[in-house]
Amino acid sequence: MHVPVLPAVQIAATAALMAWMITGFTRLPGRWLRWKMFCRATFTIVTLTGTTKDGSTEPVNVYDHLSPGSFILGPSQLQVILDHLTATGGRYEHINGHGRVLSAHGEQPVKVVDNRVVL
Question: Nearest 5°: phi and psi at 78?
Answer without folding.
Answer: -60, -40
